[in-house]
Amino acid sequence: MAIEFTKYHGLGNDFILIDNRSSSLPVLTPEQAVKLCDRHFGIGANGVIFALPGENGTDYTMRIFNSDGSEPEMCGNGIRCLARFLADLEGLETSQESSQPLITYRIHTLAGVMTPQIMPDGQVKVDMGLPKLLAGEIPTTLGSPDAKVINQPLAVAGQTWDVTCVSMGNPHCITFVEDVAAIPLEIIGPQFEHHPVFPQRTNTEFIQLVSRDYLKMRVWERGAGITLACGTGACAVLVAGVLTGKCDRAATVELPGGSLQIEWSELDQRVYMTGPAEKVFTGKL
């Protein structure tokens, strides 16, 4: 049986999207997803995202298999791509005439319910929820389970890094550096990801502070390696910047694939991410 797919990217973080609304289980196995994500022998992507029927009153359910076959709790760039995919499936057209969101989805994920909104300019704004700040929630064994992990020393790759840890439904380890371009991600990234203080492994973000409202970021993603962008990572980075007193509650986060607008609201303490999601091509498996 042929399976139709559409490829999207969010700032170069690319995904294979599959209309899985007729079944509550993904139509592909993690092993099949690995083959599809291969950039030489498959379609090429950071992950495969399935649009499944909603659960517990939500509109849809999101499942994602990474390029290594693992399943993350959530993906910020991925959920923007999913929202655009759903809007395209439903025939929604963007319009510059209104300032209000064209449509809001309630998406069930392993990290909880997310609410992406398609904006008139085609950008997607996502309520990413409340960040989790306690070590036991992230999870990490850096410090006691009921304490925040802010500027804690961590020995990796022969040097000590000051790290701040945040969960956006998935674990992130953030460290501020002088020059993100100088970080050998392919060497250091895996050592952070598999460090024993992170029992579920971790995403790792290296951040260069340009100003209080502008940050440069490079990321090593758990299960995907070096990617051009990471939405949950950008959210976690802003939270870490606020916790360490380095940045404002709203800032531009520049990634190799482009920029995201991130806000950690002082009113409701929720994190909001706004950025693009673009269709690349469609096909059949």
Instruction: State the CATH topology of the largest domain.
Output: Diaminopimelate Epimerase, Chain A, domain 1
Q: Which radius of gyration do the C-alpha atoms yield?
A: 18 Å
H and E string? EEHEEHEEEEEEEHEEEHEEEE
Q: Which blocks of ≥5 consecutive residues have pLDDT under 50?
A: none
CATH class of the largest domain: Alpha Beta
- Strand residues, percent: 35-45%
Mean pLDDT: 95
Shape: globular
Structural class: alpha+beta
Distance linking N and C termini? 8 Å
Binned, the helix content reads 10-25%
Any overview of this molecule?
The chain is an alpha+beta fold and 285 residues long. The chain has two domains: 132 residues, Diaminopimelate Epimerase, Chain A, domain 1; 118 residues, Diaminopimelate Epimerase, Chain A, domain 1. It is built from four helices and 18 strands. It has an 18-stranded mixed beta sheet that branches. A hairpin with a 6-residue loop joins strand 16 and strand 17. The radius of gyration is 18 Å and the shape is globular. The mean pLDDT is 95.
